Amino acid sequence: MAKPQIVWLRRDLRLRDQAAFCAAADAGPVIPVYVLDDETPGNRKLGGAARWWLHHSLKSLDDDLGRHHSKLVLRRGRAADILAELVAQTGAGAVHGIHHYEPWWREAERDLAERTELHLYHGNYLMPPGKVTTGAGDPYKIFTPFKNAMFDRIHGFDVLEEPSLTNPDDWPESDRLDDLNLLPSTPDWSGGIGEAWTPGTNAAIARFEDFLDKVSDYEDDRNLPSEDGSSRMSPHLHHGEVSPRMLWDAMSRHTSEGARTYRSELIWRDFAQNLIYQFPDYPEKSYRDGYDDHLWRNPNRGHLIESELEAWQNGRTGYPIVDAGMRQLWQTGWMHNRVRMIAASFLIKHLLIDWRHGERWFWDTLVDADYGSNGCNWQWVSGTGVDSNMFVRIMAPLSQSEKFDAADYIRKFVPELADMSDEQIHDPPDECRPEAYPAKLIGHKEARERALEAYHAMKD
User: Fold this and answer.
1) Domain 5-124, CATH homologous superfamily name and number
2) Residue 388, annotated ligand binder?
3) Is 259 annotated as a binding residue?
4) Was 369 annotated as part of a binding site?
5) Which of 31, 59, 218, 234 could, after both became Cys, cross-link 258 (CB 3.0–4.6 A)?
6) pLDDT tens digit string along 18-72?
7) Is 326 labeled as ligand-binding?
8) Which residue ranges make up each domain of the chain?
9) 125-157+201-278, which class in CATH?
């Protein structure tokens, strides 16, 4: 009988279009393994919201495996150590997994490959980092030419179907899912997240099918916080419950501008992975010089007003669109993309607080917190990235709120303002501002002038 084959699972928690499962199933009986790894050096431990999602995603995958009379083996510890031990214990012929590009996973892959036979496959992105290069053969650092090259290269995908699985004669022991302690308990703050989301492949596919019915309006609706115009696929994609190839393929019959825009956003995920492949510490280190030493009101300069950072985190800035976004994030583990840009810009440019404070907060509170995308997005807004918006382009949250018709969105997440009119709710006049709602931390004009002055002083 063929030797058992271990499938090493990380952010690829699906059976369809999962090359590691397919290759393992072709080679022998399959042992699917997930290792909760908080110990590999440099590993960024998952944030609280992502851990909540992971618990339910693992449960969903285990249910899917049950249809094949298979099951998920759970362990915790340093992944390379655990997997090497399992190979020795089970007599497995090889470990199969999907490539991951975070620096700690690349190190874990190298470590494991030195100890046992390891086969890695591509599958979490449209194309592997470095596959699409400039005419000179260099990796792209700017998104627009990368996007155009990707559109030229991609002509469709052969999406892999679920494999038929056979089981080993003996299963290794598994930890209980509850013993991984992924869910919050003291207190359990996840009620709003549970109401907003259903993790798992089946829920993701159902959600995406609904989205396809309105994708033609996506170009406009994606910018309207009060509308359900987003696909909300980001956490499903991040945890690998669906692959971007599956979504690209499902959209093949749609030719609208909205469909092209959505595909561009799938390409942005690939672009972020290309950046961390080139610059592994990109989510932690500014790409451009000067900002860190001369611009931010940081703790090491003695100027960071902790209360301002906390007000931003808690949705108490006095700017309704910012506060609605930050409260949506805390309640549901997700924030509308347009509002993410507004909230990030406010922290960086209105408050002059280092972008890394925001990146870390999003890492802990987003169900879709992704090392590459999160860092790439924050450096884009801050103007510090290899491809970024100019710092001097400062978003005006009050006019953005009105332009994108965020009144109902504000009413939902800032109930103190629920009775205000559409005209007043974006920027409540002082005489109408409810006592329970805070005044602005800083006026927009004052903040803009301060940010520009600080920027020009840094450049001089």
Assistant:
1) HUPs (3.40.50.620)
2) no
3) no
4) yes
5) 218
6) 999 999 999 999 999 999 999 998 999 999 999 999 999 999 999 999 999 999 9
7) no
8) 5-124, 125-157+201-278, 291-459
9) mainly alpha
